[in-house]
């Protein structure tokens, strides 16, 4: 914090009691000495100016600040002690105080011996028998605190710029990988019935995994290292200055720390999203057991929101159990998060469907299971039905609903990785139903 100094009225010290305010008797001189001792113990500047605008008292902090002795100040006019530039700023307030007004000033003052300072000064008239005999001047030095605040504000702006640049890089890299993966899946689908299907798919998957590994390396090194530096220094700022500055400074520190934490969460979610294509194990999976695992993982959220999850008889499908747990978990977690006024009510159902697709000028019929996850939440406007499945596409501010905006994008990636598709039907205020298809076990 900045140093605080005040000025007070009294003789210069115990050894110079002969210098006193006019008409001061023995008791008054004793009070002045006591006042001198008291104000010398204060970390503020205190002084007294008489009607002729001459100094009649100052405390020890005043001496230290201006590098002068009390004897050098006593009886001198304001301009002689403070300089012409400072007097031009201060004298109008002294004159108002001598006219009987209590006035304050906050701003820059260029002192003769102390240089340019940012101060807060209070001028209080001193009355005797109803007449103003002089004024007290109390000055707080805000220079250091103001400089620190400006430096912290500048640092916060730099952190914000860095966060924006990191987000831009993440979005660009993710978009490139999404485009590459979409193209890859299209090529795999076109060659599914070809004689060299297995060989080609293995090559393309190896290429995709290599791309994802390079992305994971870039995310964990290129992005995490500068972010760790940001987090470290914002932590140091919070530890050293939080609570010691004003409310704005504490708010700036909070913004910086919050931005760094949000970026850490974002990078973790992107890494998890990028690994969805690797290490899958496709085999028959009981979706009832998968749903139970997802509910167990969300037990705390279900209990805290008084939510209820019901389900019909669910089938056995072909898929990766770990990814299907994540699929159900993301959809149920969203239903709880975007709840309405009533406690969340979520229902899971499934029915068998036969789809016909065209491949290589042939119609292919295959059976799949159509799942539906229905909730009674706030709903979604139709114009956002496609957007919500894209990376980082949020419909609400972070202050309203937490999250990185990757959950539904991961759901889409999981479903499409199993050869299915996912979509939503909803009306604002009337809940939503997320549909997705998964291949049958046989």
Gyration radius over CA: 37 Å
Strand content: 15-25%
Note the main sheet: 5 strands, antiparallel
Structural class: alpha+beta
- Name the assembly state: single chain
Average residue pLDDT = 78
Number of beta strands: 12
Order of helices and strands: HEEHHHHEEEHHHEHHEEHEEHEE
Describe this structure in words.
Helix 6 (143-190) packs parallel to helix 8 and helix 7 runs antiparallel to helix 8 (247-274). A five-stranded antiparallel sheet has the order 2-1-5-4-3, sandwiched between helices. The two termini are 73 Å apart. A hairpin with a 2-residue loop joins strand 9 (345-359) and strand 10. The chain is elongated. It has 442 residues and is of the alpha+beta class. It has helices spanning 26-40, 60-66, 70-73, 78-82, 84-98, 143-190, 197-241, 247-274, 287-297, 299-304, 321-337, 407-417; strands at 45-50, 55-58, 103-111, 115-128, 131-141, 283-286, 308-311, 316-319, 345-359, 362-374, 422-426, 432-439.
